[in-house]
Amino acid sequence: MTILGIFMALSGAVLGSFFGLLAHRWPVGRADLFGRSRCDACGRTLTAIDLVPLVSWLALGGRCRRCGAPVSGFFAVVEAAAAAVGAAAVAIAEVRGLGAAGLAATAIFGWALVALAAIDWRHTLLPDALTLPLLVAGLAYQGLWGPLGLPLSAATAAVAGIGLYGLAEGYWRLRGREGLGLGDVKLLAAGGAWLGPFGLSLALLIGSLAGLAFIAALAGLGRLRVSATTQIPFGPFLAVGLWTAYALGPAPLMVAGPGAFAAAAGAGDAQAVRTMVLPTGNKAAPASLIWA
To answer: Is there a single domain that holds both residue 175 and residue 256?
Structure first.
């Protein structure tokens, strides 16, 4: 790994620490969003030695240094994901010959997906404060430096947003419950701005298959009983699909795009489009939903 790759990975780990905190505090309206971190069990203010991304959690065995209460591995996973995105962004930029703007855009896209996935996983919420700026950033990047250009980027975002909103609204009217959350619609529109039509189709396929694999794994382990009302958040799986499709680059997407779109549609039909949200203990939070 190059020095730049190491730097971006370390930067990602630091950002991942903030993303985990963001996911823990923001959606439930805590006033101390930017306050000092504390142990939820004993209330002790955490010091720098407790907050070294990944290292502190591993060194302390996933427990508070003072009271020994367990600290969720969720935070370490988010930090690791953000670090991996930082390193991958450098590799993608080098392979494609992207300049500084391309590297920055790639990292921003990936890190935004990590933040959104973390929030959705914890609270089944994809906030407009992140999805809409991501949409604007995608349009700006493709309009100024990206291979798609602004017209195709904007058209894909518009078709994805309007089309999926119509699908979600139709399902609501037909079944009387949500089948796709509006946060997911906005994230897909943002993904369309970044990826274009073929890339978005492939992302939807990958996200759907990842969601199905997760459900199957939990069901196989006896930790999930699948029924017509089984619920999981779609955002994390959609984020995986969007990042994977982006990492593959434009050439494979041009080949795989039409087939990916058809396969994604088939996967959606096979799942019957029903609401799915993992229990989070935050019943007031808006639901981010998966086709299931």
So the answer is: yes
